[in-house]
Structure formats: structure tokens, C-alpha cells
Amino acid sequence: MPQQKDIVKIAIQMPGAYPQLIQLDQKKPLSAVIKEVCDGWNLPGSENYALQYADGVQMYITESNRLDIKNGCILRLTKAPGRCAEDLFKGIQSSDAGVRCDSLKELATVSTDVTFAQEFISRDGHLLLVKIVEDSNESNVIMTHTLTGFMELMDHGIVSWENLSSVFIKKIAGFVNAKSTDASIQQVCLDILESMVLSSHSLFLHVKQEITMERLIAHLQVTNQQIQTKAMALLMALLQTAGDSDRKDMFDFLTKKNVRQYIYKNIIHSSGSVQDEMAHYLYVLQSVTLNLQEPRMRTPLDCCSQEQRDILHGLRQAAFETESENSLSHERRRSLCAKEFRKLGFSNNSNPGQDLSRTPPGLLALDTMYYFATRYPDAYSRFVLENSSREDKHECPFARSSIQLTLILCEILRIGEPPSETGSDYHPIFFSQDRLMEELFCVCIQLLNKTWKEMRATQEDFDKVMQVVREQITRTLSSKPTSLELFKNKVNALNYSEILKLRQTERLHQEETLAPPVLELKERLKPELLELIRQQRLNRLCQGTMFRKISSRRRQDKLWYCRLSPNHKMLHYGDVEEDMENPPIETLQEKIPVADIKGLLTGKDCPHMKENKGKQNKEVLDLAFSITYDVEEYSLNFIAPSRTDFCLWTDGLSVLLGREMSSESMRSELEILLSMEIKLRLLDLENVPIPDNAPVVPKPPSNFNFCYDFSQTEQ
């Protein structure tokens, strides 16, 4: 007698027959279950049939995934994967073009299932698709289905990309390089080439040799957004996989062709909004480009390098007009140099290279100072001379400030950090401005001098000034300025007094200076307001959220949606298409009873973070959470689209589990609600009744003797 927990109640459909409602015994072999179902419909040859999910992603049921079947699932009796693979294998080789087209179209759909893919590949079906591509005798429609099916089969990782022939790679590259190729074919080919590049260095070299950068850039200039996105994906794959030398050559080519400016003008500026996937690639392009400066940032100044010493002395000579140094004695010249380096703001004026030994920012600080001195010599001289002539301890040290400012910009722009797999926070200014790091430095070093004077700072206030400057830069960049001029105007308008006002406003929301009775009122109000936040969280879970699956082979897989049932008893989820914003709950094929949820994990404790240990950066860890269910053997893993969604979902799931909410969003919202409610309640403390109707105006008094006569002069 099977135990109750091994029994799952499901419905099984078949076209042209009444559904069967059965109690699936998970202990019974799947072949025996299928035979019983076939017997129920008097179907011979049960070995030719299999079970498949009827809704959503129609995946085959196997012994390895059958435990995922939940109560209420609807399955369908269909052809066994082996039989389906055999039929399609024959159909693809048919002499009838219509049969070939239909077979390849179906193949492109069913190849998403790994069970079918294994059967088809075991018959060398993928080699049949390769031959069709190499021969290139089919119509555009058939070729599109062929390439799509091939891509889906390869995406399972059953066959290595390195097994592909040079002829096949040349054909795929040819479709991309050709000017008159069908757009659907080019989309899939760009996708295939991206996967090749990411799979191995040898394929990267092969693809780089076959693909012309001119054609890849041309694909960015088409109106088809899918082609643009796929071309950008391939470009990012090439840049990320390339070695330092190849990467620099590619960037030099992109700069020569003004690709960044084109992206800004035709993708960012003209469209007004950028799709999530394209936003990610723009973020990656920004990150990879800025990271070209990482070697300089990690390298300290070499005192033995004549070139670096010359740059240091060039900074000194550009700032101070001195007499010919050749006529001075060694001691006199050494003393003069030390004095001028001290005026420049170096801490170690006898050996200024020591100031640049810290990494980061290393040599990058020397680069930014030299860029400012040569690109804007008047502003440089004005900064140095203005501060070197002060005798009141209020001088702003140029060198020390520049080194710290370079470090701050590296941290804000995340130079040295690898791009996140889910990041999309790019700066539009990056695409409208060459040498962004250096130009931002030139604006911000002058801002620093301005802020120093506004704060009437001394050397003891150095760290305080740098904190204000960091805040000015961060707040301005968060407003997404689209040009350097706009950034300059905004950051200079955000002066020290404005920063103080913003801080004061934010502090008012945080500081508590309430009397004891009011604090008591606050504690009494908390439960009511917490319940309000709980209901809001549950309502948000009922609305649902779109999540992205992250694959180890390809950066982004398919989208999936998760939402809570209106009665708060079921968590429904399933794969969806990108254009489906708010799918109905009936279309989500998977579900987990809330009663089965055992735990909520976040960050590095999540199973999908442990699997990729060492590969995830802090940004991804901050967005990751998982729920464990049944006997904690299974988990549903999430990576939230944003920190806000992370807070909403972890709070909502905590409510469902009967736990306290703990996110920063909850604390912020609770403080806002408490502040508003207390202010409203405090109005009643004045004992002034507020009537429903306006009060009647009283009659005038009988006399006005109470009035003071200002015409009389007081004695």
C-alpha cells in the first residue's frame, strides 16, 4: 500500500479522448504508469508513448524529473521522445520541401526539451542540420528553422561547440557578413556565433578571423532592435573573451568608427528608453571599456622609469615659471624641485613618486593629473598657483587631492570590477564622451577646489571635503546626465550648502527627537502600520514579478514569472515570453503550496550562489534569494530584477512563513508612515475641534473701547 505522500492526483489528456483523472504512484515505474494510461484508452504499444506537461513549457516527464509533478498538474499523452526524434529525423530528409519545412519547424520547438535533444543527437540529427547549413540549398524559411533547432540542441551542452567544422563556421559567419541575408537567419547566426565565442578561445580566434568588424558595426545601425541586440551581444562576447592586445585593437577600431557616439545618438537618445537586454550590453561595453585602465590603476609609479619621472617634472614645470634649471647647482636645483613639489601638494616633496606608490589608483592618478595639465593648462595653472600662494593653511593640495579623487572615480565607475551578469546600470554620458575618466577628473578636480573654498577647509578637513565631493559626484551621476556639459552644470549647482540642505532633509527622516509620550504613541502605532506593510507585500506578490534565468553557458536564458495566488495558498510560476508583461495565473504551469515552504535563504546561502561560488559579484549576491520546500531537498531560486523587488519578495515570503520582515525598504516605509501618522495624531493634542461645517461669523461687539489708539504718543 503506497504512502499518501507518494500519491499525486493529476489529469492526463489526449486529443480526441476524454481526460483521465488518476492517482500517480511515484514509487511505480513510469513505464507501468504509461501502460495503464494507454490501456485506459485501448492504445497498443505503450512503449511508443510518453507523458508531457500540457501547459507552458511542454517538457517530457522522465524518471529524473517526475518528482516535480504536483497535485493538480495536467499532463498529456504524446509520442515518446525516441519515436518523435525518429519521425523528425526522417521528415527532415524527405524529398518534399513542405514535409522538410514542417519537420524542421517542429524540431525548433521540441528541441528545447533535453530528453528529446538527447534522442535526436544520439541519431546524429545535429550533424544532419550541420549538413543542411553547409550545403545552403534550402529556402530562407527552412534555413531559419534549421538554425533555430540547431541552436536549441547545442544549448543543452550535450555536444561540444568545438566539434563543428570550419566549413560550418564559415557558413554561419557568411550569413552574418552578407548584406542581403534574411533578418531571421542573421538573428540566429549572431546568437550561434556568440555561443561559439564564449565556449572556447580557439573558437573565439576562428570567429574573430571570419567576422568583419565593419559588418558587425553595420548591424548596430539597422532599425531591427533584435538584430541590434544580437550584434551587441556578439560584440561584447568578442571583447570579453579577447586578450589584452586584441581587446585594445578592437577598441581602437570602435573609437575610430565613432561607435560609442553612434550608440548614444541612435540607440540611447533617439529611442528614449532601452530594452533590458540591450541595457545590459551597454553596461558591459561601458564596464569593459573603463576596465582598460585597470592595469594603470594596479601599477605603482616606478622611480627608475625615466618616462614617469619626466611626467612628474612636467607637472611641476607646467605650474611654475622658473629660471633655467641647468644653470643651478645640484643642491640648489634639488631644493627648488622639493619646494615646488610641496606647492603642488605632494606629501613627500623630496621623492614625490612615493605618493603614487599606493594602488589603486597607482599610475592612473599620474595619467589624470598629466591629462588635466596638458588638456586644460590655464585651469591647471590657476588651481596650483591659487593654492600655493596661500599662507593661511587653507590651501587645497593639488597632488594629494588628485590622487584621492582618482581613487573615488575608480570606485564610482567600478573600474577593476568585472561586469555583472545581470547589471544594466550604464551611464549615458559614457557613450557621448571620449576619455570619460579623464574628462570627469578635469571637471571634478575644479569642483573639489570650489567645494574646498566653500567649506573654508584646512588640511585637517581633507577627508571631510573628499566625502562631500564623492557625494556631489554620486548624486549627479545618479541623475543620468547625457553629456559632459550637463554633468558639469549639475555638479557645480550642487554646492556645499545644497549638500547640507539635502543631508538635513534626509536626517529629519532618521533622527528621533520625540518626547516620551510621543515615543509611547509610536510604539502603539507600529503594529497597525506593520500590518499595513504586510498586506502591501502580499498584494505585491499576488501581482507577481518577471525574473530572468541565468545559465552557465549563456548569459541570459528565458524569462519566468512568479506570483502568489489570491488566497495566499499557492505560489505559481512558469516560463513566459518577453512581451508578456502580466501573464494570467492560469498560464503559469508550476506551483508550490505555501504550506510546503520550509525556509527562505538570501545571498551566498542560496543554492544557486553556492553552485557558482567565486563567480558572482556583490551585486548579484545582493539580489539572490531562494525558498526551500517539501523536506528542504528542493529549492526555487530567484535573482531579483532590482533591490526594491528583492525587498518586496523577501518581506512577502517572510510574512507567508510567519516571520518578521527585515528589509531596508520595510524599515524606511515604516518610518515614513510613523512620521505621517504621528504628525496627524499630534494635531489632536491642541484640543481644537474641527467642525464639519464652517463656523458662523459672530456679530460685531457693542463697542470698540478695547482697541488701542496708536495715535497717542506714549509718555
Automatic annotation (TrEMBL):
The keyword Metal-binding does not apply. GO terms for biological process: actin filament organization; apoptotic process; cell motility; glomerulus development; phagocytosis; regulation of vasculogenesis. It comes from the Eukaryota. Keywords: Apoptosis, Phagocytosis, SH3-binding. Residues 307-477 form the ELMO domain. Pfam families: ELMO_ARM, ELMO_CED12, PH_12. The keyword Iron does not apply. Involved in cytoskeletal rearrangements required for phagocytosis of apoptotic cells and cell motility. Acts in association with DOCK1 and CRK. Was initially proposed to be required in complex with DOCK1 to activate Rac Rho small GTPases. May enhance the guanine nucleotide exchange factor (GEF) activity of DOCK1. PANTHER family: ENGULFMENT AND CELL MOTILITY (PTHR12771), ENGULFMENT AND CELL MOTILITY PROTEIN 3 (PTHR12771:SF16). This is Engulfment and cell motility 3. The gene is ELMO3.
